[in-house]
Structures are given as C-alpha cells and as structure tokens.
Design goal:
By secondary structure, chain A is mostly helical. Chain A contains 19 helices and four strands. In chain A, the strands form two sheets. Chain A has a two-stranded antiparallel ribbon. In chain A, strands 3-4 form a two-stranded antiparallel sheet. Chain B has helices at 6-15, 17-22, 32-40, 59-62, 65-84, 94-103, 108-135, 144-166, 171-184, 208-213, 220-251, 268-293, 315-326, 329-350, 366-388, 426-447, 454-474, 480-504, 510-536, and strands at 51-52, 266-267, 414-417, 538-544, 549-550. Chain B is globular, with a radius of gyration of 28 Å. Chain B has 19 helices and five strands. Chain B is mainly alpha-helical. The termini of chain B are far apart. Chain C folds into two domains: 11-60, no CATH class; 72-186, Rieske [2Fe-2S] iron-sulphur domain (Rieske Iron-sulfur Protein, 3-layer Sandwich). Chain C is built from four helices and eleven strands, in the order αααββαβββββββββ. Chain C has helices at 11-23, 26-32, 35-60, 90-93; strands at residues 72-77, 84-86, 95-99, 103-108, 119-121, 126-128, 135-136, 142-144, 153-158, 163-172, 185-186. The radius of gyration of chain C is 33 Å and the shape is elongated. Classes of the chains: A mainly alpha, B mainly alpha, C alpha+beta. At the B-C interface, loops of B face helix 3 of C.
C-alpha cells in the first residue's frame, strides 16, 4: 500500500471511528425510554383531544400534545443536597418527574413509563421527591443513566435497588418509631421476630445485646470484600444457588442475610472442622439453624428490619423521627422472669421459653453415636452436628436460685465445654457473662421463672 | 462575466500578504529545495534533519515506537486537558465527577477510556522503544546521555501513570497509592519504617512519605498533590526532557544506523514525515476503537477502612508488587527500583563493546543482550504472576483454579540467620558468612583468569546441587518439586550470574566489572529469594530487627 | 426527461443509447482521477475529522447536568396566597409572588439597574432598591431612580394540582406581553 493511499485510509478511519464514538455516546441507553414516554404521553393527550367536544379545549389539548412530543431530550435529575443524592432515575422514569408530569399520575402500566404508585397516600406525600430523591428509600445508583448501572446490578455497586418488602428497611433508617407506622409493618414484624428468637442474645444492635457474634448496627453496609466469595457461592435462596456472576444483582447484602436464615449457617460457613487447610480445626458458624422456626416470609421480614441498620449514610438530624424509649411492660414475678429471658435473647441458644437447646457443633448432645476415630467424615460431622446446648428444664432441677444467678452472671468459659469429637474444633457458642448487663431485680425474677419450669425428678425436688 | 478559475484563485491566495506572512515559500513544486525548506522552515518539523539514511526509516529497524510514544503523549495531553474541565480534585467530588463523566458528560466515557488506554499503551510503547534501542546498541557513544534521558522519561511515564491512578478516588486508586506511598515510608534513613529511619528520628508525621502525601494517610491533600503533579508538574518536566531527547537525536546524526558505502540519503519530507503521520494516525485510531469497545474500570468509592481483595496495583507495577511478597518494602520498593533506574542509566558507561552500534547483533554482544533481555523477561514474568496467578488474599491460584476455591493457609515461614532463625547470631555469624559468599561471587569470575568450559562448569554445579537435593529428599527436608525448584533457580542464577560473566566480562577494568557484577548479582538474588520463598518458605536470609534490617 | 415526455413509446430503444455514452467516457476518466485528486480526498477527510472533533468539543463544553437549584420551582398551592406581594420565596428563590384579583405573576427580585435586590415597602406600596435608589411600582414599572427598564417577571403556570410552578429561566418585562400567559396565571377562587 502506498503512503498516499495510507494517508487517505488512515484519515477515513480517523473520521469514521470518531463518528462511531460520537454516535455511541449520543445514542445513550436512556434516550429511547424518554422518547417513548413523550410519544406515549402525546398519544394520550391526542386521544383526549379527539373525544373533547369543546373545540377550544380540544385545541389546547392538541397543543399540549405537540409540546410533550417536542420536549427536549435531557438528563433529568433530582438534587437533594441534604442527603448528598443526585438521582437521575427520572430521566427514564419520566412519569415520576414532577416538572414533566406535575400530577405525578398517569395511566401507564409498565416500567419505566408508569407513574409512582400510591402518590396520594400519606406515605408518599410525607416524602416529597424533591426532599428525599429516589435512592433515599429505594437505593440503587442515582447517578447512573443506563439500566443495569442505575439499578445497581453491576459490580462495585453494593447497594442495588431494594426489592419487595426489603424496602421497609429504609423506614428504619430514620424512623425510631417505625413499629407504629403504616407501611412499615414487615420491618416491625422483623424486629419482633429478631427479639423473639433471641437474635440479640448474640448480635448487638445499638448497644443492646450479646457479644458472642458480630454487632449488626451497620450490617447493611457490610462490604462484600469481607464476605469470602466461596461462602457467597454456598448461599441458596429458595433452594437455588445464586447466579454465578459476581456483579449480578443477586450478590447483595439482603441475600447474604437471608442466606443465614433460609440455609443451615453451618453449610454457608462450614470453615474447616477437620483441619484440612489449617493446623487446628476451625468450627463452622455457631449460628443455630432457624429453618424450622422461620418461614420465608419471616426471614424476609428480618432482612427488611436489618436492611435499615446502616451507619454509612449521613442522614441529617432533621430527617430523623425519634421513637419513644423502649419501655418494659409492667410485669412482675414469673411473668417478668419469662419476659427477661426473652428480652436478653436467651432464646437464641436455649430456644423460645427455654424449650429447646439449640445446636452447638461438637458439643455433647442427644442422639449421638459413640465416638469412633474411624468413622467417615460425613458421619463424624453428622454426629458433631447433633451437639446441643443443654435443655434448661432438664438441667435446672439440681440448681438453687443463688447458684443459678452466679452461673448466669459469670457465664461458662468455652474451654469447659466437653467435645464429642476430641480431635474436632472446640464448640463455639458459649454462655456469656451477664454480670452488669442484667439488673439484680431482673436476675431474681429470671432465676425464679427458670426454676419454676424445671422438671422435677421423682425424688420430689 | 469573469470565469471562476480555481488556479488563479489559488495563486491569488498564496501570493497574498496574509498567506505569505504565515507560510513562507511559494507554490509547492516538490523540488529538493522545497522539501528541505519544509523541514527547515517549520518549527514543528525542524527537529528532523533534512535528509536521513534509508535504513533509519525502516519499520523493522525502528519499530516506530519512539514516534508512537510521542503520539500517545500528545493524545494523553489533549484528552487530559479536556477531562480537566469536568474534574474537581476533592474527596467529596472526585468520584462523583468520574461517574458524571461516565453517565452525563458528552463523550465523557470515551475520553476517560481514551486517556486510560493511551496511558497503558504508552507504558508498553516506551518499554518497547527502550528494548529496541538496547538491541540495536543505539545507546552507545555518543548517545549515552540521551539513553539516560530516555530512562528518566520511562520513569516519569510510570510516575505519571501512578499519580493519575489516584484521581478517580475509587478503591483501586486509594489502595494502589496507599501501597505505593508506604513503600516510600520504607526508604532507608528517610522513611519512618525504613532501616535506620527510627534512629535518625523519622516518625509517621515527618518522613518522606509524609511529604509525598501531605498527611499521614491518603487524604484530601494527597489528592490535590497528585492532581497537581499529574496535570502540571510532571508533564512540564517530561516536556523539557522530551525537547532535550529530540534535540539530542537530531544532533547525534538522527540515527545510529551505520553508514554504508554508496548509500544515498533520502529526503525526510515526505519519506519520514509520512511514516510518522501514518503511525500517529493509526495509533489514534487504535486508541479510539479500544475506547469505544472497552470501558475503563471504576470500582466502588474509596474507603480507607476496607481493602479490596485481592488488592492489586496497575499491571505495570504488579511486578513490583510481586517482589514485595519476597522482599521487605525498602528493598522491593526503594532499592530495587532505584537499582533498575541507576543500572539502566549506567549501561552505556559500562558496556565498552565497540561492536553492534546501530544494528541487531546478538552474536557480537551475547552478554549485554542476554542479561538485558533476562531482566525484561523477569519483569514481565513477575507481572504475569502478580496479575494472573494471584487470587483472594493474594494466594497463588493457577489459571484453571476458581477463585471461589478455598486455599490452604500458607505454611509458617522461617529465617536462616536471625534471632529465631537456624543460625541465631545474625551479627556474628550471618553477616560474615553472607558477606564472604557475596564477595566470592563478586570477585571469582574475574579472578579466574582462564575461560572455564561452560558445559563442564554447569554440569559440575548442577551435579552438586542435585546431590544436595537428593540428600535433602532422603532426609525428608524437601520433595521432588522443591528439588526441581532448587535445581532450576540456582542453575539459572549460576549460569547468568557466574558462567556468563566469567566468560565475557572478566577482562573489563575493575570499576566497570564491579558495577556490572553488582547489577547482575542483584538480579540473580531476586531469583534466589523467590526460590527460597516459594519452595522452602524462607522469610529472611538475614534479619536484624533492632535496625529494621531484613534481607 | 423533457425529451422523453412527448413520446414515451420508444423507451426500449433508448436503453442502448444510454449505455453507449456511459461506456465511452471511461478511458477519459482515468487521467482526471490523478493521484493528486485522491490526496485531496485525504485532506478533505482530515479536515472533516478536525471539524467533527471541534464540533464535539463545542458540544462537550455544554454540560448535560448542572448542580444548581432548578430554575423551576414549585411555589405551593395558589389558594395559600393572599392578595398583594408575598415575600416568602425571596430568600430561597429571589422571587416575589404577587397575587392580583384575577391571578398571579412572579417577579424576579433583581434591580434592572445593576442587579441589587430591592426591598418591598408595603407602607409605600413600592419596591425600592438600596443601591442607587430605583423605585418600582407593584407591577414593576420604574417610577424613580436610574433603573432603565421595568422589573423582570418570570414564567408562572398553574399546575392541574393547584400548585404554582415558577420558571425563572423565562423572563419578560414589556407591558402588553407581561400581562399575558405564560407570565401571568389566571386564577379565580371557585
């Protein structure tokens, strides 16, 4: 090829490729959606004009239709300086832009054209879009203008749009009184279940609860870098593995929490109980298996509640609605003792109303076989899995109130646990020391209640 | 009615005072005088000579890499200046501005991509340019100084990439720069974590790292500093060095290609200029197509409390990062890069071989070419390991292994000479022994005056090592893989570090010989330490914790 | 074309005639398309590339999003205003909302002299600029001082929801125009 030809070809390529680049940039993904919306809105007005009998009104409607059809194509955004949000969602969801669609209502059924549901209800009225933006409640990537990126279904955007009932977590972020709110019922149910099942026995929230496992004050901000990829791979939702791609929308914190409630946590985080990869055996997650107690709806409710536990967002104080301080119900005697048991999350290990001892891997438990070194690992593990916390009513009979109180106050050190498999890991979940956390009065009632439910043996104790 | 004669109009325009004041010279007639005038009379072209040797213009000889590097530099300047219109270097705004470039600015994504990819392409082209200049021996007298400027330009190219890396303020940025600047904190004497640093009173808030960051951690000041360095200070220095580089090329008769009998020089206009234009245009097209097809990465917003896993430097620094696995930061991050730069600049002064100037001559320069290419291959091999074979927690993952696979915890490491090492007295035992071994390695090749038989020497050495390995295996201290590692790495070090120097450079004068040997032994020590770590889990060969001295 | 119209019948005969002249110039084309002409094509494409780059650069300089408060704002329910000048949007939006018996207009609180913000003095029924003493009537006309023209009125619309939507990007101050839509929103409480 002569350089004369090369000159022509290279210049043609420069021009052509630059036009390609500009065309690609010009044909941004939001453009067709906005164009279609204007077209659809124009059509509606035209139809109204056709059925309008008053010629002046019909002409006005026709003019309005023309105006809508010829609206400028632009990136629309809601600026909420207070919350540091710049939400361009209305670029495609034009029906939710109050300048293009002042009534915020239209008859379209499908996204992104339809208007925001329930705009007349108190919930939406109390949260005007100009003051809260879109992502303030829905999450997602407000700055993005392409479908996948905007909904947060991309790698490196760890707060994708909240799906279904999980959005109620956003109420929890600001409303201290969310349990009394209309529209936050699922989150309220989640909190109730959380406390009922004794989750706070191990997981602290806002300074209240045990320290056995991680505090959940900012669980909604948990970085994926801290979740090992191979553990995420083991999460099953409705029995199905999450899609393989890391950047798929399913790899989000909601599914991670849900995975702990709809799977056996010991399967999600099995660790290394037989020391295949480490010098010492490392026990699986000590979290009990809640599948028999929580339905999928219950689990989703807890996820919704926990989705509101965030510290990352800087929400100005004037967006917060404080709740009334939690008040203990006026109870006394045994009823109060039972309440104390529930309040401090004892149920997390000892079961609701102390009725069952939950799993404690590699502790002694009912139904275990005799330990035999030569058992295959699966059988060993099945037996270790039968290790359990003591069922309190069986145990309490031999205690006096003062002994019981001392035991609760001091806890039981992990090293005291008896292993079923002597070569296996130390059973993880231990009785924490409650001294200083439970008041004397509460302790007395708790001990009295525990003794009242204790099984009496034949000797009349 | 007057006729519309194009030729007359053209003549009128060219003869007008306005045109003549801008473009001197009359109608183009393509005479040799016109061609020369084009080069001499144009400020942009006059860095070229009027005529050049045809050999100097062949693609196969020049690879066009110098010109392409310059074209990329211009492309980076243009895209960089344009990007500055929509970028504000503050923590609160930088990341959002990059998102805006991606999602809201006309051609923003394209320009950012072009800037990113052109920067990466420039790193490649500058390295390729250096390799070409080395292989054709074009750094030799009288071009030693210009080679040195070229090495500085390569360093500055990497530094520009490094400073630009922080600007998007994403996780990639903050962690690459945190690691990079912490290496500065490990500088001997000047860094608070470096050997002797604490002795002279270096603390986290008064050492060289503090100056670089403008704080004790990567923060607002750092972003502003890197922005100013990236956009103003470093490009200015690069511009000055480029002028010097080009002027020297022009003064040193343009090309090192040797004169041949009956060789007729050809006009630079159009023969060279058209090649330069074609190279630049195709480079631009290449970068544009790449930018259309692939987007520059942008991770989550920078979070000083969460490190990505695995956390990796930009690919051209991944080799250094991989070295950091084997060596303490002050060696891998300060001494090694320093030695590479100084060693490269020193090459023209220690290479006294008069042959092979201006043409590819492997047979006439076996030692120089072998050792240089070994260095280049090692550099890229380290990049490959760091880039492709390191997974979560920076563990070693083979290409066929899933990153979702659990990896066994790495075995505990140990030191040869140190307080808890095999030899407990690093000061009294370690330093003398290692010193003696190094001195022997340094001096022996020159002291053995007769050329050894390469085959026999290698055979004998490998035999001894094989015996050693078999002994180790018999004692249960190593397996066959460790044995193979030992054989390969020590064999390579012995061949490149002893046999070759003994054969080729024992006749050099002492100063040049010792400089060369220091560079060669440093390179080989990288291989030996990698072997020690990968096969035998040796952390340090010698450690003296009291002065933060570990090797 | 004009020759074909009188007699469309012999069209088939025309085909070979049309082919023949087309074949004839072929050799003549070659010398015309000299190498120089092709080079001009190259330069033309380079020029087009330059022009495209320049045009794209110009487009680039117009930001697609700006981080300023919208020129448009919702001034609340029309029914919430009393007759006369309302200064409640002055601090936030620099606009007075004026309600007359027949409707609304929105006046931009910027003196047309040198851009200070005048004050509304209800006791004297006029706007007075503190900088150089310009005085304006309720309608924005200059009655004293150096101001060269009346105050600007912003576009104001009554949305179907009953809210007033003010757009400060669209302004008018000429008598005769400023009293009509879209610078005046008719409103009569039902």
């Amino acid at each position: 090829m002569s350089y004369r030809k090369a000159f022509i070809v290279s210049n043609a390529l420069l021009l052509g490729v630059f036009i390609w680049a500009f065309a690609k940039d010009f044909l941004a993904p939001w453009r067709p959606y906005q164009a279609k919306y204007y077209e659809m809105a124009g059509e509606v007005l035209d139809k109204q004009a056709a059925s309008e009998k008053d010629p002046k009104k019909a002409a006005d409607l026709k003019a309005a239709a023309y105006k809508v059809r010829h609206s400028p194509m632009e990136i629309k955004q809601i600026i909420v300086g207070d919350l540091g949000r710049f939400d361009r969602c209305v670029t495609c969801h034009v029906g939710m832009d109050e300048y293009t669609n002042p009534t915020l209502k239209n008859g379209f059924k499908e996204n992104p054209y339809k208007s925001h549901p329930k705009v007349d209800e108190a919930l939406v009225k109390a949260h005007p879009f100009t003051k809260f933006g879109c992502t303030g409640c829905h999450s997602g990537q407000g700055l993005a203008t392409s479908v996948e990126a905007a909904h947060g279904w991309v790698k490196h955007w760890e707060k994708p749009m909240l799906k279904g009932v999980h959005i109620q977590g956003s109420c929890v972020k600001c409303h201290g009184n969310f349990e009394t709110l209309k529209g936050a019922e699922t989150a309220a149910k989640g909190k109730k279940l959380f406390n009922q099942h004794g989750c706070q026995g191990c997981h602290m929230i806002s300074g209240f609860g045990g320290t056995t496992s991680v505090a959940l004050d900012d669980i909604a901000d948990k970085p994926f870098e801290r979740i090992a990829g191979y553990n995420f791979k083991r999460v099953r939702i409705d029995g199905k593995e999450l899609p393989d791609e890391h950047h798929d929308s399913h790899w989000n914190i909601q599914n991670w929490i849900l995975g702990h409630l709809t799977n056996d946590p010991a399967e999600v985080t099995p660790n290394d109980p037989f020391a295949h990869l480490n010098a010492e055996p490392i026990p699986p997650s000590g979290m009990p298996d809640f599948r028999s107690e929580l339905s999928r709806e219950d689990a989703d409710a807890i996820v919704a509640y926990l989705s509101g536990q965030t510290k990352e967002e800087q929400i100005p104080y004037r967006y917060h609605v404080p709740g009334p301080p939690a008040k203990d119900p006026a109870l006394s005697g045994l009823a109060h003792g039972r309440y104390v048991f529930q309040k401090y999350g004892c149920a997390g290990c000892h079961g609701i109303d102390a009725k069952l001892g939950r799993r404690r891997i590699n502790a002694m438990g009912p139904g275990q076989e005799e330990y035999d070194e030569k058992m295959p690992e699966a059988q060993l593990f099945a037996n270790m899995n039968k290790g359990a916390e003591p069922t309190l009513p069986d145990l309490m009979g031999t205690y006096k109130a003062a002994e019981l109180i001392t035991k609760i106050e001091n806890g039981v050190p992990a090293a005291d646990a008896k292993k079923w498999n002597p070569k296996g890991p130390l059973p993880m979940v231990t009785m924490p020391a409650w001294k200083g956390k439970i008041s004397k009065h509460e302790l007395d009632d708790l001990a009295a209640w525990l003794l009242s439910i204790a099984k009496k043996d034949d000797s009349g104790f | 009615m007057p006729t519309l004669d194009l030729e007359t109009i053209k003549k009128e325009i060219i003869d007008s005072q306005l045109w003549r004041s801008v473009f001197r010279g009359g109608v183009w007639k393509d005479t040799p005088r016109d061609r020369a005038g084009h080069i001499i009379g144009n400020v942009w072209l006059h860095l070229h000579p009027v005529k050049a040797r045809p050999r100097a213009l062949e693609w196969a000889y020049t690879w066009g890499m110098g010109g392409i590097s310059f074209a990329l530099y211009l492309l980076l300047t243009i895209t960089g200046v344009v990007l500055m219109f929509y970028y504000r270097p503050t923590i609160g705004l930088a990341y959002r501005d990059i998102k805006d470039l991606e999602f809201a600015v006309t051609l923003g994504m394209f320009l950012r991509n072009a800037h990113r990819w052109a920067a990466q392409a420039m790193v490649v082209s500058v390295i390729a340019h250096m390799v070409r200049v080395f292989l054709t021996g074009a750094y030799k007298k009288p071009r030693e100084f210009n080679w040195g400027i070229g090495v500085l330009l390569l360093t500055l190219t990497l530094f520009l990439s490094f400073t630009g890396y922080l600007l998007p303020w994403d996780q990639l940025a903050i962690w690459a720069v945190t690691v990079g600047t912490n290496m500065a904190g490990a500088t001997p004497v000047l860094g608070n974590e470096g050997p002797l640093g604490a002795l002279v009173g270096m603390r986290i808030n008064n050492d060289v790292r503090f100056t670089l960051l403008g704080g004790t951690m990567v923060g607002e000041n750092t972003l502003l500093r890197f922005y100013v360095m990236h956009c103003v200070a470093v490009p200015l220095v690069v511009g000055i060095l480029l002028i010097l580089h080009f002027w020297r090329i022009r003064k040193d008769s343009f090309s090192a290609a040797p004169y041949q009998a009956n060789e007729e020089k050809i006009d630079v206009w159009p023969h060279l200029v058209k090649k330069e234009y074609f190279g630049a245009a195709m480079t631009t097209v290449f970068i544009m197509v790449w930018s259309i097809l692939q987007n520059a990465p942008l991770e989550a917003i920078a979070n000083p409390n969460v490190t990505t896993n695995p956390s990796k430097a930009p690919w051209y620094f991944v080799g250094l990062q991989e070295l950091l696995v084997y060596f303490d930061p002050w060696i891998a991050g300060v001494v090694m890069p320093g030695l590479i730069i100084v060693g490269l600049i020193a090459i023209p002064y220690i290479d006294t071989n008069p042959k092979g100037i201006g043409y590819y001559a492997w047979k006439e320069r076996p030692f120089a070419n072998t050792l240089f290419m070994l260095g280049v291959v090692m550099w890229f091999a380290l990049i490959y390991i760091g880039y492709a074979l390191r997974g979560p927690n920076y563990a070693w993952y083979w290409p066929w292994e899933s990153w979702y696979m659990l990896k066994a915890a790495p075995p505990p490491t140990w030191s040869v000479f140190g307080p808890t090492g095999v030899g407990k007295f690093s000061m009294f035992l370690g330093i003398p022994l290692i010193g003696a071994a190094s001195a022997a390695w340094l001096l022996l090749p020159k002291l053995i005056q007769k050329e050894l038989d390469g085959l026999k020497t290698m055979g004998a050495f490998l035999g001894v090592i094989a015996l050693f390995a078999v002994g180790g295996m018999a004692m249960g201290k190593m397996g066959p893989i460790e044995g193979a590692f030992l054989l390969f790495f020590t064999g390579a070090s012995f061949y490149f570090g002893f046999v070759l120097p003994q054969r080729h450079i024992r006749t050099l004068d002492w100063a040049r010989y010792l400089t060369t040997m220091v560079l060669v032994i440093s390179t080989m020590s990288v291989l030996l330490k990698m072997c020690a770590r990968l096969a035998f889990n040796i952390k340090y060969v010698l450690t003296i914790p009291s002065i933060s001295m570990n090797i | 074309m004009s020759e074909a119209t009188p007699n469309p019948a012999p069209e088939p005969a025309k085909v070979p005639a049309a082919v023949a002249p087309a074949a004839a110039p072929k050799p003549a084309v070659k010398p015309d398309m000299s190498r120089g002409d092709f080079l001009w094509a190259g330069w033309a494409m380079l020029a087009a590339f330059g022009a495209a780059t320049a045009a794209a650069s110009a487009r680039f300089m117009f930001p697609n999003v700006i981080y300023e408060p919208s020129q448009k704002f919702n001034a609340g329910k029309a029914s919430s205003y009393d007759l006369g000048v309302d200064t409640k949007w002055l601090n936030e939006q620099r606009v007075w909302i004026v309600r007359t018996p027949t409707g609304f207009y929105a006046m931009w609180a910027r003196c047309t002299h040198l851009g200070c913000t005048p004050n509304w003095w209800g006791d004297q029924n006029r706007f007075k600029c503190p900088c150089h003493g310009s005085n304006y009537t309720l309608g924005g006309d200059v009655i004293a001082g150096p101001a060269p023209m009346p105050l600007w009125r912003a576009k104001v619309e009554l949305a179907p929801t009953g809210d007033l939507i003010v757009d400060k990007a669209i302004l008018e101050n000429k008598p005769g125009k400023r009293e009509n839509a879209p610078f005046f929103a008719n409103y009569s409480p039902a």
